[in-house]
Amino acid sequence: MSSRELAKINEAQKAILEKHMSTFPVKLGQLARELGVSIKVSSMRSGISGQIARIDGEYTVRVNRNEARERQRFTIAHELAHFLLHRNIIDTSPDGITDNVLYRSGEPDRIEYEANRLAADIVMPMALIEEELRTKFRGTINEAAIESLAAHFEVSKAAMEIRLSTFAEA
Ligand SMILES: [Zn+2]
Hints:
Layout lengths: L10 H10 L7 H8 L2 E5 L5 E8 L2 E7 L4 H17 L1 H6 L4 E4 L8 H15 L2 H12 L5 H11 L3 H13 L1
Zinc ion binds next to helix 3, strand 4 and helix 5.
């Protein structure tokens, strides 16, 4: 099951998201382009993971080039989630939203939880993970499954572990 955040997105954007969430690894660059957001891998202060702001009228995600690639992918998804869910905040702040390594931005915690949940949906679509787990690992979540899924979805092992923990509870 996907997060409730997915249900809040307008139909046109949701259609774009769902198209990209049907294959893995999810092509974030292409997804961003179709949403009208540009991505810049940038030199950013250490301790900062990413930012989304409106620069010269264009929504732009900056992601810290010094962080691991898997980490950069989650950050891009997190910033795209802000774009989809919190455009009003981005539009009313000259610097948009800037996230530190804990994905805290000075906005209320709720805003960051929402962005994290939607980001997880985007880079680790539940339907695909369930299918992979079922067909390749007989539904058993173990170290090998976590490692393999993390590699195939191009996310960190820690991120995949958290994602899979929601299965165990279900
Ligand atoms: Zn954030």
